[in-house]
Amino acid sequence: MTRQRSGTPTRDRIHLAASRLFRERGFAGTSVRDIAAAAQADPALVIRHFGSKELLFLDAVRPRLDESAFDAPLGTLGTRLVEMLLDVGEQFRPAYVALLQGSAEARIAEHLRGLHEREFVVPLRSRMSGPDADARARMAAAMVGGMLYALWVVGDGRLTTDRAAFVRRYGGLLQQLITPDA
């Protein structure tokens, strides 16, 4: 195997290759050898730099939501979140699906739970009030997870045939959890 001498550190090349391959093929569909070949590195270096395929996956696959989505006026936050998730689909979807596919691995499942909490429940909960705000934030997160599953895992494109109606209806349901007394 020819080694790349571009000045790009081996660790960075491995990370970039892993990020791309995990998003394209998922955790189970990507081997350490695949990553090494794409990074033009020895497979032993993948393990030396990251410890294991699972740890590399956790480092390479990090979906992030735009925090500004939670800054929308509270009365329109439900529709704003649905719109934002539909808009970021192609950037966010591969990482989300890769995490779901890899969630049979304990550390990946724990990572997914942490992302769920940090990226959605906590920012949403911080905007809500009432004694049941935590429960409603968790229900809203579960509802969004169901939407993402239907759109990105099952691939039910019929849900968004009329995007405006979908945003209005699904966003309205989500809004009922965010501001139930409004």
- What structural class do the secondary elements suggest? mainly alpha
Secondary-structure element sequence?
HHHHHHHHH
Q: Return residue spans where pLDDT drops below 50 for at least 5 consecutive residues.
A: none
Q: Please tell me the total number of domains.
A: 2
Query: In this structure, how is the largest beta sheet organized?
Result: none
Radius of gyration of CA atoms, rounded to a whole number? 19 Å
Average pLDDT, all residues: 88
Count of extended strands: 0
The portion of residues forming beta strands comes to under 5%
- Principal-axis shape equals elongated
Helix content: 55-70%
Question: Helix count, per DSSP?
Answer: 9
Tell me what you see in this structure.
This protein is mainly alpha-helical. The chain has 2 domains: 51 residues, Orthogonal Bundle (Arc Repressor Mutant, subunit A), CATH 1.10.10; 112 residues, no CATH class. Helix content is 68%, strand content 0%. The chain contains 9 helices and no strands. Helix 1 crosses helix 6 and helix 2 crosses helix 3. It is elongated. The mean pLDDT is 88.
Short description:
With 182 residues, the chain is mainly alpha-helical.
Architecture blueprint of SSEs:
Layout: H1 10-25, H2 32-39, H3 43-50, H4 53-60, H5 77-87, H6 89-102, H7 106-127, H8 133-153, H9 163-178
Characteristic terms for this protein:
single chain; 182 residues; mainly alpha; Arc Repressor Mutant, subunit A; 9 helices; 68% helix; 0% strand; DNA-binding transcription factor activity; HTH-type_TetR-like_transc_reg
